[in-house]
Amino acid sequence: MKRVLYSLLLILMFSFLGGPYCFNSNASNKPVVVVIDPGHGGIGDKNQGAQYNGFSEKEITLQVANAMKAELEKYDDVVVYLTRSTDTNMTLEERAAFAKSVNADFVYSIHFNASANHEFYGSEVWTSAYGQFYKKGQEFGKIESDELGSLGLYQKGVKTRLGSKGDYYGIIRQSTVRNIPCVIIEHAYLDHMYDVQYLRTENVMQKFGVADATAVAKYFKLKSSSTGADYSTYNYSSVKAPSNAVPQDQSGPDYCNIQVVTFDAASRNALVSMSTKDSQSDVIYFAYSYDGGNTFSLLQMWDRTKETQSFNVFIPKGITDPQIVCRAYNCYERFTQSEAANVPNYSYQN
Ligand SMILES: [Zn+2]
Question: Which candidate, 91, 142, 181, 349, has a CA 20 to 30 Å from the CA of 98?
Fold first, then answer.
């Protein structure tokens, strides 16, 4: 009789959990706790974040965070918090302490980017340089990067940055010191036209929020009874936890060699073949100059799966002695510059 009662009890328990044949991947059945941190916030210049082309970083981070929360809450077994839901000023320490107070499994800090010379574009994810935090940040970051890439944004990669106190970025440092993995998602640059064009498309903050939530759902293998989305068997490549901190790449690509193959007088294009490689990090951009390196083109997208690529450099009429110089940039924005090369069979007329 006791055994029968015990079996009945087990059956009841399994029914309550959803039945023995539909275990969810979250084996303990403890909900995943996600903290979304909309970057910046509050009054005063230093709380605004980047401000370009009519976009205010502190406002759009909140829009993306709200959309991300709403999307993520469609999944089962997940609890979602925002560090701020209004235009308020919070220190990075307060944000991380809040995440700790709700027992967060992960902190996602939502940001938009800008660069001093307005030259970079694309998305990037920053992660801790240390151990399990690095592993988790890299694994999530790759999924996130794929989601943002599928929206059409150029992907710079998943990166680390060390400073004098360990991880350079405060929200990452403050979270990991509390034993919570954290990434910063820099969705796009507010000061580069390539990204701004995309930022001006309809419902774009909503799309970012959905992309971010989908990446989280894939990472935690969530499923949704309401939408039918099911990532319980989603696989992503495992990253090894490093035993030492993984620092940023502080040097440019190993080499950047060019050859000017031909000059087409009709189109005024010089065909340039460029070879580059960086043994530490991906080469992601290149730029070219026809005036010996005085002025350069906008940064072009480099196909990081190749070490040699060809492209045309347009040389305007009247340039008497063009000298081609190219630069290869890695994902840490360090560049290596080629030697100058003459243009064969060049004619400055026509
Ligand atoms: Zn920011």
Answer: 142
- Round to whole Å and give the CA distance between 225 and 246: 39
Number of Cβ within 10 Å of residue 158's Cβ equals 22
Bridge-based pairing of strands 308-314 and 106-113 is: unpaired
CA 184 to ligand 1 center in whole angstroms: 9
Which region, left, alpha or beta, applies to residue 280 given φ > 0 means left and ψ of -120 to 50 means alpha? alpha
Question: Tokens 């940055």 — which residue?
Answer: 161
Q: How confident is the model at residue 29 (pLDDT cuts 50, 70, 90)?
A: confident
| Dist. CA 121–CA 188, nearest whole Å | 7
Instruction: Give me the percent of the chain exceeding a pLDDT of 70.
Output: 92
Q: How far apart are CA 108 and CA 99, in angstroms?
A: 10
Ligand 1 mean position to 60 CA, how many Å? 10
Could you tell me the two tokens for 56?
Answer: 């205010």
- The pLDDT tens digits for 7-17 are 544 444 444 44
Q: For 213, how many CA atoms within 13 A lie in the half-sphere containing its CB? A: 26
